[in-house]
Amino acid sequence: MAALRSSAIRDLLAVTARPDVIGLAGGLPDPDLVPLDRIRAATVRALESADSLQYTETAGLLALREVIARRESALRPRPVTTAEVAVTHGSQQALSLLAQVLVDPGATVVVEEPAYPGALQVLRATQARIMTVPLDADGMRTDRIADLLAAGERPVLVHTVSTFHNPRGVTMSASRRRELTTLAERFGFLVVEDDPYGELHYAGPPPEPIAAHSDRVIRLSSVSKTLAPALRVGWMVAPREICAAVELAKQGADLCDSRLAQETVTELLADEQWMTGHLQDLRAEYGRRADALRRAVEREFGDCATLSRIGGGMFGWLEFQDGTDTDALLSAALDHSVAFVPGSAFAVDGQDRAGARLCFTTNTPARLDDAVGRLAAAHSR
Amino acid sequence: MAALRSSAIRDLLAVTARPDVIGLAGGLPDPDLVPLDRIRAATVRALESADSLQYTETAGLLALREVIARRESALRPRPVTTAEVAVTHGSQQALSLLAQVLVDPGATVVVEEPAYPGALQVLRATQARIMTVPLDADGMRTDRIADLLAAGERPVLVHTVSTFHNPRGVTMSASRRRELTTLAERFGFLVVEDDPYGELHYAGPPPEPIAAHSDRVIRLSSVSKTLAPALRVGWMVAPREICAAVELAKQGADLCDSRLAQETVTELLADEQWMTGHLQDLRAEYGRRADALRRAVEREFGDCATLSRIGGGMFGWLEFQDGTDTDALLSAALDHSVAFVPGSAFAVDGQDRAGARLCFTTNTPARLDDAVGRLAAAHSR
Fold it and tell me: In terms of CATH architecture, what is B2-28+275-380?
């Protein structure tokens, strides 16, 4: 199922490669906002020595783990050590290795409904028993997790895209973050805080990470959304025994990552002044695009559909109130040369027919305006 | 066990990072022979556009699969199509995904004794039932596979490092390659032909790949030994359904590889004239080093130990005839500032105490001479 769904998304992405189609379907950074010159300069510097082309440590270059530890320490009360950082081939690999290391067949895991398909795919591959908890405007419904625990469920882990959710766009509130870790400590489960979008905030920073409240939280992030996907540098901050187990699993999975890419990323993340400016630029431009999407949706759809509040990230969630089936809408939309991902692609147990994920990062405000116009034309057909 | 053993090798590699230690333990290309300028030029060219920094196809860039298909087609009677090529994050990832896709818990798999630890690790992780077959000077003993089959064993796959074996250095003969595929077709198992070293031949090319004889062969290779490990570009040539299953598993494992690295490798592999010259240079220099190792071993050890014939690859296998325990020898060797990997690190069922893997690629002839002198001093202690 997960496999089918995620390949449905890939088929969709193939259609949206048509140059006439305005893509709201992807979840990509805009190539025009990727810091190409800076990445090229750092790459050329790393390539001054052939050492950058050799095999490297499975856990990641120490200098990179140091800079990640420093950045992550700034987000929480207790400093993070390098033994608590494992660098992975994008944060998807961290998810996949964690599932391999922590989840036995039949073990219970809790995910959000709707869920990030990449998490669902790796958890299903372990033959875990997957339970879902809904989201609202304050993120994952921790009261529902409490209900499951009260009913005797004993999950080994809870997965959440805590900040600027994929696909729903919402952010877990500070009080729910505390509640979740209180439950994790009382019932002994782990929380996987999957946070690739947290630095892309357009209306003030999100609450402290869930990981700031407990050591039972494994925090994942990456540079795919802030620097470039092709660097394939993600990481995990976790208790050192979990890092060690993931490192061993990674040895079997692919031996190690690219030392060249890790040296490049080390230079960029360590240049705090540049990185701060770069993030500010991204926030300003993506924030303008999020606003453009909102204005266009309000103009075109009025009361037919509502768009989630966009505090950051890459997605707005459009929810139809008029009985529109977004699977059907997608066919019509492709006829009007605009693409999005229907809610059904993210459904776990349920059958979402009213929701649509709209990515606003890869188009200018003018193109977004045009795209929503096309979507409205498809909708009124 | 595999985990312990492979981490033993890693601990060993940590010791050998001491600058005074001459390392015969690794399995690395010499950084001085990595085509740094050519890789830098191709990388800078790819970085002319930010498209090289975006996400890419899970199966690998089509242009790269085309050049791999072309190169692989030259090695076998039937041309390879791009649907039969999957690019992976080094060929270790191909092994790992294949184990995930093809091997159920309790399934029987056959490996060589001694074995490449990376293969053993991923097969053990699937909880396969692992059977071993010994090697001799003509490679894997296919008669022993026939014995297992005659006794009613029904393996799902047979893994072999067919050419310039790691660790034993030997190459499977042409007649055994044919025998193995005859058995594979009669009994319905798959052969994984793990061939990262085949292009590094120093005494004429090896026999046709096993894959030339049957479609039941999955062939793995990579540029880690010929261009550079940090490019992390490996591949698998296999029936298209297996490529499709591996692609789906890779989506969960890490979404995709680096488009930048794939563009770089595409340029280098497609430049056949340059690539031919580069391989000739590697063969000439590594061949000189293999000769230097042989001469030094003959001079220092005489009849105490024999070195495998080195036709290519990175390793010579030193076998002691005088009762030397190579685990014990390693401690003494480190005292004399020389490192190697003892046979026990590659043992599956058995307990090899007489063998030692010597890597000759990362040292000049003069240093190899010195290294073997130190090893002899440690041995005579």
Answer: Alpha-Beta Complex (3.90)
